[in-house]
Amino acid sequence: MKLNELADEAGVSLSTVSKVLNGRSDVAAATRSRVESILDRHGYQRRTGPVGRSTLVELVFPDLDTVWAMEIIRGVENVARENGLSVVVTESGTRHSPAPDWIAGVLRRRPVGVVLVFSDLAEESKVQLRSRAIPFVVVDPAGDPAPDVPSVGSANWSGGLQATRHLIELGHSRIAAITGPDDMMCSHARLDGFRSAMNTAGLPVDESLVAYGDFHVDGGRENARAMLSAPDRPTAIFAGSDLQALGVLDAARSLGIAVPAELSVVGYDDLQLAQWSSPALTTVHQPLTRMAEEAARIVISLAAAEPESTPRMDLATRLVVRDSTAPVGGAPV
Amino acid sequence: MKLNELADEAGVSLSTVSKVLNGRSDVAAATRSRVESILDRHGYQRRTGPVGRSTLVELVFPDLDTVWAMEIIRGVENVARENGLSVVVTESGTRHSPAPDWIAGVLRRRPVGVVLVFSDLAEESKVQLRSRAIPFVVVDPAGDPAPDVPSVGSANWSGGLQATRHLIELGHSRIAAITGPDDMMCSHARLDGFRSAMNTAGLPVDESLVAYGDFHVDGGRENARAMLSAPDRPTAIFAGSDLQALGVLDAARSLGIAVPAELSVVGYDDLQLAQWSSPALTTVHQPLTRMAEEAARIVISLAAAEPESTPRMDLATRLVVRDSTAPVGGAPV
C-alpha cells in the first residue's frame, strides 16, 4: 500500500501521515491513533535505504537504579558492537511501562530495534513500534512476559530447585526460604522449585520458614532476624536475591551466628558483589549478560527479516558454590 | 572559509573533504590527516540546522566492567533527559585511550558532545572532534587530566584527609593506609591527605602500614592480612576503595578480628554496595553521579557556545559515617 492511499483511507493529508511516521508531536491524538491503526492493519513496512539506516539499538530500563542494570548494558553493548551498532540507554522513568514521551523519542531516533528490560509495553506503544517496523524484545528477569511479545527470561523454577538440592545434599533439613514480592512470578517460580526439592527429598516444608519480601537487603535482614531468633532456628536459608542474602549475612553476624559453620546461606542472581561478600556467596547464577546478548541478537535478526512466530526463550540458571554453605553442623567444606 | 576553498588548499576534491567530515573510511590516511589539519587550523565549524541536529550525547568507557560505571551512566542520563537528549553508551575496549574505530563511529553519529570516562584522548582524536565542533569532557576519577582537556574530577587529597581525621578523632593512632596503584595520581593524592592528617595531629606514619595495591577486593584482603598478622597490628585501616575495604573486612573476619570493636575500617567511593556490607562501611563519598552530571552539562553548553577557556573542576568529597568505625579499644559508637 502506498502512503497516499493510506492517507486517503485515513482521511488526512500525506504530510500528516508522514508526521505520524516520524513521531512528530504536532498531530492531534485522535488523528495519530487513526493513522497508526491503519498503518498497523496494512502491515506497513518502513523502507530503509542504506543512507537512512540507523545504527542504534535502544535499551530501555524502567529505572537505572537496579543492581543488575550494568550486566544488561554490557550484554547489549557486546552484541551491538559485533554488529557495528551503538547502544542508546534510556531510563523510562516509570516502573512498569515506559513513559509516553519515550515512544516519541524512539520514533524520532528510528533505532534498528528496542530491548526493553522488565517492562510491560502499552498496547498503543506496541502498535506504534510495529507500524514503523521497529522490532522489540523484552529481557524479563521477572518471569512473566506478555504472550505476544518476544522475550528472553531465565529458568527460575530450576534455580530454586538447584539451590535447595545443594542444601539437602549438605545434610540440611530445616531449610528456610525468603523469596521476592508476592506479585512477581519469579518469586513463585523460585519458591515452587524450593518446595519440589523438599518434597522429592521427603522433607516437610515448615511454613513459618517461608517468607515473601522485596528483593533488597532489608527484606533479607528482617526476615532472617525473625527466623534466626525463633527457638528452633533453621540451619540453612535460601534467599531470593543476592541482596537479600547480604541481609541474611548481616542478621547472622549481629546475632553471633557463624556463616557457614552454623548457618548456610544461598543467594540468587550471582551479581559481581556475590564474590565480594564475606564469606563469598554460594548463589544461583542468573545469566543476565547472556540474556541481554540474546535479546539484542533477536532484535537485530527481527530487523532483518519478518519472524515466523514470536521468539521466546528461557536461559538456564546454574548453582555457583562459594563459601557461604557447608555441611549441617559441620565445618566449612 | 568555504569547503571548496578548503578542498583547494588541501589539493583534494570537495567530495573527499565531505567524506572526511562524515567519518567515511574510504579516504587514504595521509589525505584524511591533511584535510583534518587544515580543518583544524581554520577552526572549521560544522553548520547544524535544526533538522540535522543530533539528539545524542556519547558516553565512552574504556571498560564497562567497573563497579562505578552505573553511577556515571545515571548522571549523564539525568542531564541528557532534562535536555531532551539520549545517551549512547560505548565501550571503547582499550584501557587508556579509545580504540581508533570508535572515533569513526562518533563522527558518523555526530553527537551533541562526548563524555569520556577516565581516558586519555589521542591527539589525533582531539583534532578530529574539534574540527567537527563536537565538544568533549573527561570525567576523571583518577585525578590526572591532560591540561588542554575540559574535565570533572573530585577532591582526592581532601577525601584522604577527612577519612584519617575521623579515625584520629575516634582515638586511633596506629592507622594503616592501603591506597591504589602507584601509577594513578588519585592514589598519591589520597595517601598525601592521610599523611597530612597524621602529621597535623603529631602522629608518626609507620611505613610498614602503608601499602599500594590495585583497587580490587584482593588488594585490600592481602595487604590487610599481612598488616593484621604482624605483632603490633593497626587498630584502624583506611582503604583506597570500597572494594579494598570489603577485602579488609574479609581478612579481619578470617582472622577472628571483630569490626568495628577491634578494628575500624574506612573505604573510599561510597558505591551502593558500601551500604550493604556487614558491617555497613564508613567511607568517603566520591560524587560520581554528580561528576557525570556536571560533565554532561559542560558538554551541552560547549555545544551551544565557544568557551573562553578550558572548563575544569573538582567536586567535593565528604565522609559518610556508618558502622565500620568505632572508638579505639571500645564498643561500636
TrEMBL record, chains A, B:
Keywords, A to Z, come to: DNA-binding, Transcription, Transcription regulation
Q: Which CDD domains match?
A: HTH_LacI, PBP1_CatR-like
Question: From the UniProt record, which GO molecular function terms apply?
Answer: DNA-binding transcription factor activity; transcription cis-regulatory region binding
Among SUPFAM superfamilies, the record links this protein to: lambda repressor-like DNA-binding domains (SSF47413), Periplasmic binding protein-like I (SSF53822)
Ranges where the HTH lacI-type domain occurs = 1-55
Task: Show the PANTHER family listed in the entry.
Answer: LACI-RELATED TRANSCRIPTIONAL REPRESSOR, LACTOSE OPERON REPRESSOR
Q: What is this protein called?
A: LacI family xylobiose transport system transcriptional regulator
Say which species the protein is native to.
Conyzicola lurida
